Amino acid sequence: MSDVFIRTEGHAGRITLTRAKALNALSYDMCLAIETAIDQWAKDEAVRLVILDAEGDKAFCAGGDIAQLYQTGKAGDYAYGRNFWADEYRLNAKLAEYPKPIVSFMQGFVMGGGVGLGCHVSHRIVDTNSVISMPETGIGLVPDVGGSLVLARAPGRLGEYLAATSLRLNGADAVYAGFADHLIPRDRWQDLMQALIATGDPAPLAAAADTDTQGSYPQMQHWIDRYFGGETLSDIVNSLNAPGDDTDELAFVASALKAIRRNSPLSMACAIEIIHRLRGPSADIRRALELEYRFTYRAMQHGDFLEGVRAAIIDKDRNPQWKHGLDSLPAVAVSQMLLPLGKDTLTLEEDTTMQIAFIGLGNMGAPMATNLAKAGHTVTGFDTAGTTAEGVTNAATAEDAVKTADVVITMLPNGAILRSVAAQVIPAMKPGATLIDCSTVDVESARAAAEMATAAGLQFVDGPVSGGTVGAINGTLTFMAGGSDAAFATAKPLFDIMGQKAVHCGEAGAGQAAKICNNMILGVTMIATCEAFALADKLGLDRQKMFDVVSTSSGYSWSMNAYCPAPGIGPQSPADNDYKPGFAAELMLKDLRLSQQAAEAADADTPMGQAAAALYEQFVEAENGKGMDFSAMLPRFEKRGRG
């Protein structure tokens, strides 16, 4: 018998893993065989559902067969692993999107590749002895095979907790976390399978479930949310290093820190970043797999995978020498592992490429256009300054750029220019195309452009961004989008290439409204953060001590934790580069002025936003702040007294 037994019985297609002595570890050949079977059954009217189970008591599937991946990787053959992961991920997507019910019966260990097989299907069954986990960070990977999506959808911050610690779930906890649907005692499984075979109807499964068994994780959820709610791995570690004094809580923190200290810092940080990018209703299995593949594609050559496997299963010394320490992981290392892969991007469909025109190839637009080109799209660009972007073909005029484009993207300085460009390019665009404006402009200009597009039979999305030039380069921008559902659906795959998150905020103009509100908060909180550091200096409080307290206390903010304005404190930021701009002070002034323009039009009282706008106006126009980062408010406050 082969490693997988595939057959049809009654109304069911049946797949049984038969490598019980190897804990049913998933091999490359098994993946391909399972994919072939489900492809055939999808078109077979006699097959009403699929049953997926495994022989033996110890494991449904304890993961992928990583020994072969290690051997090929050590020999410098990275292509084998990349091909395996790509083909396995394609199978995971097909299982998650399958047009017929699939019922997985998962006993014993369900880890890694086993999660990809059994935990995305329509009906997922466990029993009290099931043990589910995503232990990848312990061997230098991230939770993959779509597991990151399940973690992103888990209650509260349970996903971050499980990804960082690699801890296990019993059957009841697996249902709680979202890895399974029903806990059913195993002695009932055979009768249920026979009923499924006879009827092809999975409905009776819910009635057979045991709803009385309770897991342990619900009781820990409040601690998990408290300590694993940070934006980065560093935030989480800082939080764990400042625990409360409850005895049970201290035990929880100690257990979590012990687990984290075993795992790859690079893998944990990337796993947390992936989970954060997937959190929200718009994420799906394809987005999760594409993000995971960015990491696994690089895992052998640039990550900790080979060293993690060596320490775990080759030499078994349990003493991996990770590339980075838990306290010395640079943020850029995470960004580099999760950059778009360009022509090597994971593709699950035949052809999803578009003809794209990009108008405005400045500091933001050029890297955004480059990332689209690297992902395989055909991009034609135009900029009045004659600037270019890697992989982008330049057109002589804006009209020439847009005439064959499926999508036109603009990144422009202000609302007046947006109105002018829209009036210029909309008549030249082909019927049914989509105009996406990523500029930060006033709400009325966005709505005016939307009206022009709609009148011409085009779709329109206003999608201003947050994340600065670094986010544009690394493909980690956040898009705040306004427009119809259909227009957003067209734009979303492109947002996923250029950024880490896209939120559909409402109809046209809603994206600009969200951006204006967001940046008003950012401007106000940065001023408060700079004021607090200047005050701490004059009170004799060490800056590092202040950061250690505030970054894990109620003063936590993005301005403090991710973009600290004090040089040498927190993650690297423009403050560590003489305040050379990541986000220039004059751009913050522009956004704050937009917020006050909108507030006046809406008759909204925004005294803090108004004060922030006045301070940045003074800083930029009277105090040589132009050309400096918006966090350079700190040296300004350092030099000033109360009067």
Describe the 3D structure.
It contains 28 helices and 18 strands. 48% of the residues lie in helices and 12% in strands. The protein has 3 domains: 4-337, Alpha-Beta Complex (2-enoyl-CoA Hydratase, Chain A, domain 1), CATH 3.90.226; 351-508, 3-Layer(aba) Sandwich (Rossmann fold); 515-638, N-(1-d-carboxylethyl)-l-norvaline Dehydrogenase, domain 2, CATH 1.10.1040.10. The chain is globular and about 80 Å long. Residues 355-506 form the 6-phosphogluconate dehydrogenase NADP-binding domain. Residues 509-634 form the 3-hydroxyisobutyrate dehydrogenase-like NAD-binding domain.
Strand portion, in percent?
Answer: 5-15%
Helix content: 40-55%
CATH architecture of the largest domain: Alpha-Beta Complex
Spans of at least 5 consecutive residues with low confidence? none
The CATH homologous superfamily of the largest domain: 2-enoyl-CoA Hydratase, Chain A, domain 1
Rg calculated over all Cα atoms: 27 Å
Kindly identify the CATH topology of the largest domain. Answer: 2-enoyl-CoA Hydratase, Chain A, domain 1
Main CATH class of the largest domain: Alpha Beta
Largest sheet: 9 strands, mixed
Shape field: globular
Catalytic activity: 3-hydroxy-2-methylpropanoate + NAD(+) = 2-methyl-3-oxopropanoate + NADH + H(+); a (3S)-3-hydroxyacyl-CoA + NAD(+) = a 3-oxoacyl-CoA + NADH + H(+)
Pathway: Amino-acid degradation; L-valine degradation
GO molecular function, one term: NAD binding
Protein name: 3-hydroxyisobutyrate dehydrogenase
State the gist of this model.
It comes from Thalassovita taeanensis. The protein is α/β, with parallel strands linked by helices.
